[in-house]
Amino acid sequence: MKNEIVRCECVDMAIDGTGIAKSGDLVVFVKEMIKGEIADVKITKEKKSYSYGIIDRLIKQSPERMVSDCPIAYKCGGCDFRHISYDHQLELKKEILANILKPFTVLDIIPDENHYYYRNKVQIPYRDGKMGFYRKYSNDIVEFADCLIESETANHIIEELKDLLKDHPQAAMIRHILIKQNHDHSELMLGFIVWKKIDLSDIIAVLVDKYPSIRSIILNINEKESNVILGEEEILLYGEPFIIDEFHGIRVKISLKSFYQVNYRQMLKLYELIRQLSDCDINSRVLDLYCGIGTISLYLTKTAKQVTGVEIVKEAVNNAVENARMNGIDNIDFILADASKGMDRYLKEKDIVIVDPPRKGLSKELIDSLIGHDIPRIIYVSCNPQTLARDLKLLENAYQIDEIHPVDMFPYTIHTECVVRLSKRIEAKKENI
């Protein structure tokens, strides 16, 4: 059946943004097909119970279909929905979330009003003279001239680096380029991830002269053959080992390894949503697990009695402590520890727990610890709806699961950030007495 043309109707969307199409009993996953469309589809791969295909001819087009404004959108793998109107993207993402998170209620996604050039961080692989994004599901590098979701300054610097690295004697030692910016683009950090120490002084001289917003250039050495991008050793080549950003009146230092939300506008909405859902007040004792450089922790100190942040990355904890000191905040402390285990002693006498775990979600040990304590409220922040659904089902006997609030942190991609409030069930509290 491979290479055969089959007429299909798209009946749903998969979690990766692919259209789920049907032709009789045949199920075909079709790239770039939108729910409600009918198309002649060329089968490209067969499995036992389903196939993959590409659109050969569109018969019935969705009114929400647009001509993509990016020439490489479906080659580089960065964007999934550049062929769909923004409002309809939100509707589709909500449907996908609702399917994954059944039986919990998913509210409308909080939109990003200005959804171009929103990313304040770009991580670009470099190999064999090519600099670009990886093609989806491969290690092929797709070059670009103007990425519509990365910042415009980052785009210009990447183009500049392509020329500067051409025929450079040490270019082969570069693995990745990492660029970070603050929200008003007044400060920029440039990281060169390399196989071994190299001399880039000639390139640095050109860049800092042309781009005065560059405040930090760092050489990160990673000699390991792995998918982990950053290595342990760092050498400061120019400026300071950090840049400074500000949100809600709080100044924070961001280092090369710091986690910081990539969409500043949506981050502000996300943090305000967390504060509102937590009912944080002057009597609240808050535990912020997976706190990173302490951004959520610091924000909650404005209303909380005391906040404790827990983070496993030493550099992030050092950043968090410095951020608290820089802002003169004294109702906060940070602990270097693995939030996935051994949290019982920190959970004692807490009113609110914030969890913002990596994509793998919460550990069974942490879930058991949360259930075993009379924490009135848990706020779960998740970037992975599948692990969120798993964890909520483990917590729902002890906690009332309120509505799920999605925030569109990543326009034109399949990804969203979800915030959920969990309230301790009264009957669960009685069982612990």
Number of strands: 21
Largest sheet: 7 strands, mixed
**Strand pairing plus helix content: what structural class?**
alpha/beta
What is the molecular shape? globular
At the fold tier of CATH, the topology name of the largest domain is Rossmann fold
Q: Do you know the CATH architecture of the largest domain?
A: 3-Layer(aba) Sandwich
Summed over residues and divided by their number, the pLDDT gives a mean of 94
Which class of the largest domain in CATH terms?
A: Alpha Beta
Q: Could you name the ranges where pLDDT drops below 50 across 5 or more consecutive residues?
A: none
Radius of gyration, in Å, reads 23 Å
Annotation field: number of helices: 11
Terminal Cα separation, in Å? Answer: 64 Å
**CATH homology superfamily name of the largest domain:** Vaccinia Virus protein VP39
The percentage helix is 10-25%
Biggest sheet strand line-up: 8-7-6-9-10-11-12
**Beta strand %:** 25-35%
- Total domains: 3
Question: How is this structure best described in words?
Answer:
Strand 18, helix 9 and strand 19 form a beta-alpha-beta unit. The strands form four sheets. The chain has a seven-stranded mixed β-sheet, covered by helices on one side. It has a seven-stranded mixed β-sheet with strand order 17-16-15-18-19-21-20, sandwiched between helices. Helices cover 25% and strands 31% of the residues. It is an alpha/beta fold. It is built from eleven helices and 21 strands.
Describe the secondary-structure layout.
Blueprint: E1 5-13, E2 19-23, E3 26-30, E4 38-46, E5 51-60, H1 73-76, H2 86-100, E6 121-127, E7 130-134, E8 141-143, H3 152-165, E9 174-181, E10 188-194, H4 201-210, E11 214-221, E12 233-239, E13 243-247, E14 250-254, H5 264-278, E15 285-289, H6 295-300, E16 306-311, H7 314-326, E17 332-336, H8 344-347, E18 352-355, H9 364-371, E19 377-382, H10 385-395, E20 399-407, E21 417-424, H11 426-432
